[in-house]
Every structure is written in structure tokens, then in C-alpha cells.
Design a protein that fits this description.
The protein has two domains: about 35 residues; about 170 residues, Alpha-isopropylmalate synthase LeuA, regulatory domain (Double Stranded RNA Binding Domain, 2-Layer Sandwich), CATH 3.30.160.270. With about 220 residues, the chain is an alpha+beta fold. Helix 1 crosses helix 2 and helix 3 runs parallel beside helix 4.
Length: about 220
Amino acid sequence: MQISFYKVIQALSERTGKEITSKDITTAFRQTYHLGGSIYDGRLVLKSFTTHDLRTPGTSVLGTPEMSPMESRPHSRMASLSLSGTLPEASPDRSNHSEDLRQTPKRLTAKVLVDHKLRDIAGEGNGPLSSFLDALQGDLGLTLSIREYSEHAVGVGSDVKAATYVELIPADADPKDKTQGGFWGIGVDADITASGLKAVMSAVNGYVDASGVEIGEA
């Protein structure tokens, strides 16, 4: 990701012909990864989501403040999760035998703004990220998979948040060929699931911007 973003700053320097300041770098970072408020939103914006564990119908985890205000949201699971940089689903596209709730089969429904139009999407997978990717493919025609994933904690105590980084690649890309760069995304949230989904959406916007691919109609 550092290599990918370095290219963004290099292009900015060549285009402006001036010394790049820390403010320039911060702004470019927010614009590139659609991070830091609505003014940096991309063509797709995750507004809310709900996940259901398919093994235990009726249970759900609500995410994003738009769907469930912080005061009424379930307690954050951050304290019980390891932010060690390991993929929470082992791989979003492969099953995992762990009994961790994050690896149980899930169905995800989400509300997503697509070019300012609210869309409802839904998908299933072995975790929230693979379910989200399934929804993006099935309802919006965006076929992508995760090549890289990492996460770490930001802050301490009750203010801790999860920062998640993902690299997405198109369906026809070789996941082992690192010479062909993917599309990086970043998400930050007090809820680790929301952080991961935001990171995926960030990367999806990068893919859409760069490829000019058409987004499926309802």
C-alpha cells in the first residue's frame, strides 16, 4: 500500500511542480481512499449494514451509526478480538473450521449509495467481508476478491478503534502476481466488522475510479 500511495504523491508532485507539504499528503490520502468525511465520498458509500449468522437465524450485528446509534448498538467486540494482522475469515473466499463467530456462515444486507442513489444489496459468505463481496458481485456486478488484509488498533482504552487495510483484485487477476497492483482501501471504526466493510468499499471505489467499469443497475 505504501508503494501504491507513493505513486499518487509522485504524480501530484510532477503535476504541481511544487514542494509537497504534509497537508498536501493528508488531503491526497483522504481523496485517494475516500476517508475522512462526506466531502471525500466516492461513487459508492456504505450507509448501513446488518449481518445474520446463518447457523443461528434471528441473531444479527448492526453496524454504522446510520443504522444503529452508538448508544443503542451492541457493545463493541474490539476487546475480545485480536488485532494482530491476521485475516478475520482466514480468507474471505475459503471456509474456516474455527468456532469464532466471525467465521460462521453469514448473510449480509446493506444499504449503499451508488451515484447518490440508495440501493439495497445482500450476499452470503463465510464471514462479513466475503458476504459483502458476494453482494457487490450479485447486485452491482462488481467481481473482486481480497489479496491482502491487515488490521491494527488505533487509540487505547474505551477510545480504541480498528484500522483495516485491504487490497482487492479483479476476477481475472492472478493473486500471486504482485507485479500487477490491486486496489487498496482503508476503513476505521470502533466496530471491527464495520472497519473491514468500509475498507472494502474504499478499495471498490478505487477500482471503479481506475477502471471506469459500469455499476450494475437494479
